[in-house]
Amino acid sequence: MAQLVTRVDDDLAAAVDELVEEGAVASRSEAVRVGLHQLVDAHRRRREGAQIAAAYSATPQTDSEVGWADEASVRMIAEEPW
Fold first, then answer.
1. Helix pair 28-58, 10-22: axis angle to 10 deg
2. Cβ distance 51 to 62 under 8 Å?
3. Which of 53, 60, 63, 81 has its CA at 20 to 30 Å from residue 37's CA atom?
4. Per-block mean pLDDT, blocks of 10 residues, the chain (82 long)
5. How far is it, in rounded angstroms, from Cα 7 to Cα 27?
6. Count H helices, E strands: the chain?
7. Are 19 and 31 spatial neighbours (Cβ–Cβ below 8 Å)?
8. Burial 51-81 (b: 16+ CB within 10 A, else e)
């Protein structure tokens, strides 16, 4: 397992210590691991979202691919006994 060493300012260290005291994390190390997991996951999600958006921009859906959903929604709403 790799080991990362870093320095943080006193205020951040105190905030992490509060998380440990409150039981949000078991240790400073766990707090760092949780934070890094969240950072990596958020970056991955942004990257994948951008790739999906680019793909839809490059090849937009046609009316025949999505038109049925709009038509079905209109029919479903019309059938409601408002």
1. 100
2. no
3. 53
4. 95 98 98 98 98 95 84 89 80
5. 16
6. 3, 0
7. yes
8. eeeeeeeeeeeeeeeeeeeeeeeeeeeeeee
